[in-house]
Amino acid sequence: MKLLTAIQKVLPVEKDSSHLQLLYSNMHPETREEVVYRKNGKSVDKIIEIDVNTGSKVKTTHYDYFNDKKIRSVDEYDRKTGKKLRTINYVLYKSVDEYDPETGKKLRTINFNVKDETKISSIQEYDSETGKIITISIYKRDGKTVSIIKKIDPVTEKVTSWVNNKNYEYKPVEPAKVMTRSYDNIKVTDPKDKENIAQLIDNLYSNKVKFENI
Question: Taking a C-beta distance cutoff of 8 angstroms, is the pair 178, 186 a contact?
Fold first, then answer.
């Protein structure tokens, strides 16, 4: 199965669904709120929702520093374990970070179109060991069709290959190795050595010494 087709099946974008929809949109009857204020004691920094039965965090809503009526981001947690599942970011452009509930490491980031949050602009996937980006999927304007997929080496952080929407795979061409020429290794004589040699030759001539007798 072609790579683009496989990803389209794994990450379908349904017409009536949105990755930005909260897992727990309303306060559950069995949760309580903890309000954390900033140092001024007036503006709200964040609101934490906690499951009263397990004591685990369910959701943390972070507010903008200059406007505590404006949401900056929302962290959502597994109701039973309290481990982070994802973060929805609302600053500049909307995006969703998804995490591995076992390791806590980031799995992928879904970025949405600046003008239309129902459309995906790109998806970044991360290496479980280094935490660095290993795949970038760029979407077309419809927000549903993958246009190109880039594979990245997590160590060198260089693109190793990319596939376009016609399933054609490209690989970067390595630059040709420069061959070492034999005369490249010739060492240049030090200027002081040149002077000493010249002085020696002058002395030999002045003393009329024949070179074959040396």
Answer: no
